[in-house]
Amino acid sequence: MATSTPTTRRDPKHVARLVVFAVAVVLLVWFVIGNAHTVNVEFWVTSAQTSLIAVILISAALGALISLVMVRRKR
Fold first, then answer.
1. CA 1 to CA 17: how far, in whole Å?
2. Residue pLDDT, tens place only, 3-53
3. Residues 6 or more apart from 28 whose CB is under 8 A from it?
4. What is the Cα–Cα distance from 75 to 65, expressed in whole angstroms?
5. CA torsion sign, 20 to 22 to 62 to 41?
6. Is the pTM of this model over 0.85?
7. In the 3-class helix/strand/coil scheme, how is the chain assigned residue by residue?
């Protein structure tokens, strides 16, 4: 007796999101590697000298966090 396994179909929206996310990560990594300089970051009351890589990664993380909060708030 042959058993049949259910076919799994991926949701096209899910696949599109994964592709966009992967492209964004690749572009971010490429941008970070190309900008490995030291920069002076000024805050309201102080300033600090740090790697541009850290500035880019922190900015990307904060942008992703804000985006996630906004999407969840919409639901």
1. 40
2. 555 556 778 888 888 999 899 889 888 888 888 889 898 988 999 998 888
3. 56, 60
4. 16
5. negative
6. no
7. CCCCCCCCCCCHHHHHHHHHHHHHHHHHHHHHHHCCCEEEEECCCCEEEEEHHHHHHHHHHHHHHHHHHHHHHHC
